[in-house]
Amino acid sequence: MAIDPRLHETLNDIRRAAGAFTDPWWVMGSAAAMLAGAEIDNVQDVDLLLSARDAEILADRWRDCLLPTPENSDRYRSRPFYRFRRALEVEAMANFEIRRASAWQSVIPHSRKLADGLPIAEPAEQVALLEIFDRPKDRARINALRALT
Q1: Is pLDDT above 70 for 54?
Q2: Domain count, the chain
Q3: CATH number of the domain to which 49 belongs
């Protein structure tokens, strides 16, 4: 599967910036599924899960391309949360949580492997996380990741 040139450029931007990170971090969402080898039709943005310290490092490094950040929703929250204009939009989430029932649950992958030099969660763990989110676009990613086995 050929990679979108905009995604390629964005991932290279992330690789360069990540050299300054101090803590474990992950590429998440559709970009992570694609990096795992899943057949993903269209990666719209790149989601990063990282520490607050590394989110601030990234915000300082990419200050010139910061985008307005929406308020946290009643289902997801991140502190801090940054959006950046690159070839594809990048969303950087620290202290990411999802509301399940009436409680907030931290989202921190347990697995971490490199795919094309970028850290992602193992495909099975990506599936488990996507099942928690349970959005229509996540169901397509789940099916694509399950097809890897």
Answers
A1: yes
A2: 1
A3: 3.30.460.40
